[in-house]
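Subject: sequence -> structure tokens, single chain

Hey, anyone have a minute? Need the predicted structure for the following. Not urgent.
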Amino acid sequence: MQAIFQQFIAKWGDASLPSLPCDEQSIASAEQALRTRFPDLHRCFLVEVGKLWVPNILSSVVAEAADLPSLQDLLSANEAVETTNGWRSAGMPNDLIAVASDAGGNCLCFKRSLEPRTDAPVYLWDHDFDETTEVFPSFYAMIQSYLSLKKHA
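Reply:
Had a minute. Here:
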């Protein structure tokens, strides 16, 4: 497992709900359903970690007044399909693929692409205001940003 993923799980994972890794078949099926290819680093995250609930990030974002989305749930490959399709019917742009959500129900997304890519920018789609903003230059930067937060109870 990549060290950064181990650090992220150790710091933010919830022992009562362990991560649920995805198999290659579920990732391929999700990519086909979404007509996209996940960035390589995200595919690696899905295989090594998968679905991960991280509810304690919210208190740290608030306590540190961090300019970060209050990440709460990193989605499995199947959940990415369900969440993306569900929010599209509510107005999420068709070029976005949901891969995580924050405590307010907003989606953290990649832009759809069939091109192989090592990593990609992460966008926040705010469902209340129907606005899309790039919040991280890459998935790696997103994970690193949350690792830099001090953990608050």
